[in-house]
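Each record in this resource describes a single protein on a pair of labelled lines. An example record follows, reproduced without changes.
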Amino acid sequence: MRVIVHTGKGGVGKTSISAATALRCAEMGLKTIVVSTDTAHSLGDALDRQVGPEPSEIAPNLWAQELDTRYSMQKYWGKIQEYLGAFFNREGIAKVNASEVTIIPGLEEGAQLLWISEYFQAGEYDVLIVDAAPTAETIRLLSLPDVTRWWVERLMRIARGLDSVIRPVQKLLTRAKKNETGIDIAENAWDQVQLLFDTLDGVRELLTDPEHSSIRLVVNPERMVIRETQRTYTYLNLYDYATDAILVNRVFPDEIKDPFFDVWKQRQAKNIEFVREAFGSLPILKAPLFGEEMGGLDMLRRLADELYDDRNPAERMFDGVVHKLVRLDSDSTWMLRVPVGFASKEQLELYRARDELTLSVGPYRRNIVLPDELQDLEITSAKFEDRTLNIRFEEQAS
């Protein structure tokens, strides 16, 4: 199964593009499901169909689903939350507060991503299209396996405590309530913790495997949107997620001749060139701003035609890496690796603002927006090795 995740700044058209991509895959004979993980669902509006928390058949080979946060939480976290809530309640924390304490930051949204593992394991679909939340939330979700493990281990350490404390709690829970199989809640909770970790690790492994998964970044030709997307791309590299295309949406078409739009069209042309500078050799697919509202299968077909022409959207579109950020031997030492192909050392020029690098290779230029972790660090070296520019960032001694 191929998994394609569309993300980008809020309002850039991710949902329409996800729906159009899914429709194109389905009409090419691939059994396809498109799911929305955004809490502000609009997938049903884009398809002009009723879509709910379970898969609904929209057209031949096409299913859609708007994931329900409450159901996903109960499915993947219910027994663990019940156990921890009972523990904290016994320690004097009010039941409603105990319920809040046992929610891991980001897990409400992240539990929805665990559906990906379920569909992959079932092998029922050829393509899974994910209409993801805006970029900040998506980065939280994609980093969830690491963050969740940290939080759960500490929550469980509090709950388990010393043997002299946990044994009476387990006995209390066993006496208080048994499930249908006669196994106490505590045992189920520990089993579900391990299942949660295993499933999250599986999702992480799947989404970081470029043979199976691709992240595609949706942008509008606006400087602010592009800069946020640059930062997102760097963070995705940090977590080893493969981006294989940039989708530029709502480009003013050439047939607009009204002089009112001339300045806008010129600005968009400059910003599209900036996209090319920012993302190097990543494929750039463009879709125009249509003269009518996007929605319904006919309009989605038009959008898919503009984006993909006769290309299969499920194909992997890019094999390389534009740049890669890795942590070295300490939290405050990083290496940014930028492949520069067959350029020579003499052709390279590097400039830095606080949150941005500009790399010139002969007549060509790349702009790389730095993540927060690097903005207060100094560049201590920049070495050209094996067709790659290795830029080292370190904390300077005061």
Observations:
- The CA atoms of residues 105 and 207 lie 21 Å apart.
- The longest helix spans residues 185-207.
- The longest strand covers residues 243-251.
